[in-house]
Structures are given as structure tokens and as C-alpha cells.
Design goal:
This protein is an all-alpha fold. Helices cover 77% and strands 0% of the residues.
């Protein structure tokens, strides 16, 4: 689960960076950035203790 969140966060940050420099996606890019930051924070808070 943690690896999935981390992967999604990396993808969303990449999409945000592309949109930020291209100015083509509008406000949805900032929503993606917020989702990515939340995903990263969840991973940091959970740590590696979720592995079974």
C-alpha cells in the first residue's frame, strides 16, 4: 500500500510539473499537487511499519 501511494505521488507531482510549465491544464493541476502532497504525508506518517 505504501509503495502504491508513493508511486501515485511521484506521478502526480510529475504531471503537476509538466502542467505548471505548460500552463495548459488550469486549476486541476493544483488539485493534483494537493493530492500528491497528501499521499506523501500519509506515507511519511505511516512509515515502514505497514509491511507485514
Amino acid at each position: 500500500m505504501g509503495n502504491l501511494l508513493y508511486g501515485i505521488a511521484v506521478i502526480l507531482i510529475t504531471i503537476w510539473a509538466i502542467g505548471f510549465f505548460a500552463y495548459s491544464a488550469g486549476a486541476i493541476i493544483h488539485v493534483l499537487l494537493v493530492i500528491a502532497i497528501i499521499s506523501i504525508l500519509l506515507r511519511v506518517i505511516q512509515g515502514n511499519s505497514t509491511t507485514k
